[in-house]
Design brief:
This protein is an alpha/beta fold. It contains eleven helices and 14 strands. The strands form two sheets. It has a seven-stranded parallel sheet with strand order 3-2-1-4-5-7-6, sandwiched between helices.
């Protein structure tokens, strides 16, 4: 497959380059960046082989089989239709096609959606949850990192009606790479190191994405309290979720649901009793780790998931989607396990 990456100098773009270079069926022929056009990729990032970065312009994108767009919101949507018309499959790692209701998108992202007419073509891309919908499509909305960690934990339970759709609390923590590579005072070393803080409280843009997919799973409107936190580490997400049980549901029912749902999934791991997910379990890999416990006093399930925000939460999942689109083994190019320590 002839493959290109727009936004190749960001953290998720670099991870895409790293993964695609070792993918046996991928030929990386185009790297795009608006801020670094004309520069040698090897000079900027000596860990990679030589390459020229093209302009961030659809006229500069050559004929490709797959184009990955690792761009800020609003930059992919206006160009996507032209690429699709040329027969290029588009995997958008930004937010432009994740939310089905354009009014919701515009409300949360404070911008006008430039391609409302093609939103219905997009498929939300978590293969473990939406594999059949993804197959054969040309526009994939690669999910956000926080939604990936949350939805893999909750969607099976909501589909089975095992937990309440009310009073869902999601307490998530991410490494600093989740904020991207652009300069930002709040992400400077001296601001982040030896510090721990909440941000985007009751306003984070992944909230409507999570609510949309949980509402679909439950066939009932779901509102969540979602609070992300910034942790002084480079990568990883640990999400702790609190939700009430449906009447008569026991802890074993939840675990059995997970075990049946993910029985054939290589990348999802339900940990043995007493072993709780850690970000190090997933660091540098496309794997997900899950655990839960029911607090009998409060009748709440406490659910914990861990992923690497740059791999399963972004670039690794995008490559998994590419594999699925082309009928390749989903683990192709993603066989690596976590780095430890």
């Amino acid at each position: 497959m002839k493959v290109g990456v727009l936004g190749a100098t960001g953290y998720t773009g670099q991870e895409l380059v790293r993964l695609l270079q070792q993918h046996p069926e991928s030929e990386l022929v185009y790297l795009g960046s608006s801020s670094s056009s004309g520069k040698s990729y090897e000079v900027m990032f000596p860990q990679f082989s030589d390459g020229r970065i093209g302009l961030l312009d659809d006229e500069e994108v050559p004929d490709l089989d797959v184009l990955f767009c690792a761009l800020p919101h609003g930059l992919t949507a206006g160009r996507a239709a032209k690429w699709l018309e040329r027969g290029i499959k588009v995997i958008d790692l930004g937010a432009d096609f994740r939310i089905k209701n354009p009014e919701t998108y515009e409300s949360w992202y404070n911008c006008t959606h430039p391609a409302k007419e093609i939103i219905p073509q997009a498929v939300y891309g978590i293969p473990e949850l939406y594999r059949e919908e993804i197959k054969g499509k040309s526009l994939i909305a690669n999910p956000g990192c926080y939604p990936t960690a949350t939805l893999l934990a909750l969607v099976p339970l909501f589909e089975k009606g095992l937990v309440s759709t009310k009073n869902v609390i999601i307490d998530a923590k991410s490494g600093v790479s989740g904020a991207g590579r652009s300069a930002n005072l709040a992400n400077n070393f001296s601001e982040v190191n030896e510090n721990f803080k909440a941000y985007g409280v009751a306003s984070h843009r992944h909230t409507p994405e999570i609510e949309q997919q949980l509402t679909l799973a439950a066939n009932d409107e779901v509102l969540v309290n979602f609070t992300p936190h910034l942790v002084p580490m480079i990568r990883g997400i640990l999400t702790t979720i609190y939700t009430e049980l449906a009447p008569g549901v026991k802890e074993d029912d939840l675990l059995t649901c997970w075990q049946e749902y993910y029985a054939e999934e290589e990348f999802v791991h339900i940990l043995p009793e007493g072993i709780w997910p850690q970000t190090k379990f997933a660091s540098g890999s496309n794997h997900v780790f899950l655990q839960l416990k029911v607090d009998q006093r409060t009748n709440r399930a406490i659910i914990v998931s861990a992923i690497d925000n740059l791999i399963k939460g972004a670039s690794g999942q995008a490559v998994q989607n590419m594999n699925l689109l082309w009928g390749l083994p989903e683990n192709m190019g993603l066989e690596m396990r976590a780095l430890w320590p």
